[in-house]
Design brief:
This protein is mostly helical. It has a single domain, classed as Serine Threonine Protein Phosphatase 5, Tetratricopeptide repeat, CATH 1.25.40.10. Helices cover 77% and strands 0% of the residues. The chain contains six helices and no strands. The N and C termini lie far apart (73 Å). The C terminus is likely disordered.
Amino acid sequence: MRSARWSRWTPTFRVRDILRSKLAAFKGFLKSEAYAILGTLDFNAKAYADAEGNLRKSIDAFPQQVDPIAVFRLSVALDMQNKYPEALKFANQAVDLTKPGTAAGDAARKEKDRLIQLIGGVSEPAGETIRKRGRPGQP
């Protein structure tokens, strides 16, 4: 039989831990949203370097649930600063986070295709590359 002392305190500690973790997550979410708003304001003012900093902070503040629009805007901000390889990395992430057929998804896909052309690559699905070049070990 458990002592009365353990049964009385154990749930309280669990509740505190749960509340503490939820509060930390909520604070991260609020920070992320605040930086995303600041980054959007900088982006709209064409201050792309400032937008880059704030959008990166937004992504870092709540990495458990990244805002796809913030990732897309970061990609475009990097593109406007001629940082094409890094912009492509975030464009790929924006494509992964969005669904095709949505406004954000279509914009992210167009940005990705545009960056691939700027860098000098060819935009083609992964399956097409395997069919054209052959599988490793095959002629």
